[in-house]
Amino acid sequence: MNIPTWSLLLAAFAGITMAFQGAINASLGKVVGSVESTLVVHLIGTATVAIPFLVFKGGKGGLARLGEVPWYYLLGGVLGVAIVAAVLLSIPRAGVANATTAIIIGQVITAMAIDYFGLFGLEQVPLSWWKGLGLLFLATGGYLLLN
To answer: 67, 70, 87, 105: which has the highest count of C-beta atoms within 10 A?
Structure first.
């Protein structure tokens, strides 16, 4: 599989911003509360995407087709709330590095399963010995980081 460098850089950027977001959200949660922080984060996120959406008069015009998607494709918003809440609750107790380590291990294991089964209409990506070895090294590194 030939992976474009820009997509890996973009993914690394997402990881960097997630670490900052988790720390910032946890700090906000200490001041205003967990539920309140989750609400504020999503309201600001909604405004952040709504402004360019309105200024540029939408994206590809696909919102009219929203009724055609399977219901479970709409769970992203619910999962986003669960993610923000779990991160802002775990970071003050576990620390940013420990919580992020656990997040990454959970993400990779779940991502490998989604790839393997081709869930949500995505292309199936087979497992290999190299990927298994990589997962073993990731788990070992996670164990070392968490102890």
So the answer is: 87
**Tens-digit pLDDT string for the chain (147 aa):** 687 889 888 888 888 898 889 999 999 999 999 999 999 999 999 999 999 888 887 777 778 888 999 999 999 999 999 999 999 999 999 999 999 999 999 999 999 999 999 999 899 999 999 999 999 999 999 999 888
Which residue, 114, 116, 106, 113, is CA-closest to 138?
106
pTM: 0.80
Residue 71 CA to residue 73 CA, distance in Å, equals: 5
Number of domains in the chain: 1
CA–CA distance, 17 with 19 (Å, rounded to integer): 5
SS3 of 123, please? coil
Range of the domain at 132: 5-146
Q: Is 1 helix (H, G, I), strand (E, B) or coil?
A: coil
Long-range contacts (CB closer than 8 Å, 24 or more residues apart) made by 116-124: 120/72, 120/73
The single residue listed with the structure tokens 């055609």 is: 68
Question: For the chain, how many residues are written?
Answer: 147
